[in-house]
Amino acid sequence: MRRVTSTEFWIGPTEVRLTQGNLIYVKAVGPQNYHTATAHIGLIRQFYQEINEPLNFLIDLNEAGKNSPEARKAWKDVSDDDLTCKVALVGIHPVARVIAGFVMSVSVSSKIRFFSTQEKALKWIYE
């Protein structure tokens, strides 16, 4: 993990930023395995501790790859966490739609939705 600023990190090719409005922006790039998912979850837990209130997620899946079963479970746990408010998955690439469909099908949470644009996703998050 590479720290760029106090709110911007890179885990491999994936960017993770804490932005204004208690939003965690993730630009997922490439596949995720157990080790990269664990690094993401650790960083998210750190953000939870620093902010100490529920956070929203905007996750750009356009360049995402396949996630390992362990990575999928880790992300499911984050989405189901009480400190996670809303999770907006964004993508126009067919792989992004497949990933989003899988994530939404394994989660019991209604706080996850898929969008074709970031603008639509942000509107839903802040409504």
Describe the structure.
Helix content is 41%, strand content 36%. With 127 residues, it is α/β, with parallel strands linked by helices. The chain has one domain (2-126): STAS domain (Transcription Regulator spoIIAA, 2-Layer Sandwich). It has a 7-stranded mixed sheet, sandwiched between helices. It is globular, with a radius of gyration of 13 Å. It starts with a strand and ends with a helix.
List the helices and strands and how they pair.
Elements: E1 2-3, E2 8-11, E3 14-19, E4 23-32, H1 34-51, E5 55-67, H2 69-80, E6 84-90, H3 94-106, E7 112-115, H4 118-126
Parallel strand pairs: 4-5, 5-6, 6-7
Antiparallel strand pairs: 1-2, 2-3, 3-4
Number of domains: 1
Question: So what's the overall shape?
Answer: globular
Under CATH, the topology can be stated as: Transcription Regulator spoIIAA
Q: Strands across the major sheet, in which order?
A: 1-2-3-4-5-6-7
CATH architecture descriptor name: 2-Layer Sandwich
Query: What would the average pLDDT be, to the nearest integer?
Result: 86
CATH homologous superfamily classification: STAS domain
Largest sheet: 7 strands, mixed
Number of helices: 4
The total beta strand count reads 7
Unreliable residue stretches: none
State the order of secondary-structure elements, H for helix, E for strand. Answer: EEEEHEHEHEH
In whole angstroms, the N-to-C terminal distance is: 33 Å
Secondary-structure-derived class: alpha/beta
Highest-level CATH class: Alpha Beta
Strand percent estimate: 35-45%
Q: Into which percent range does the helicity of residues fall?
A: 40-55%
Radius of gyration based on Cα positions: 13 Å
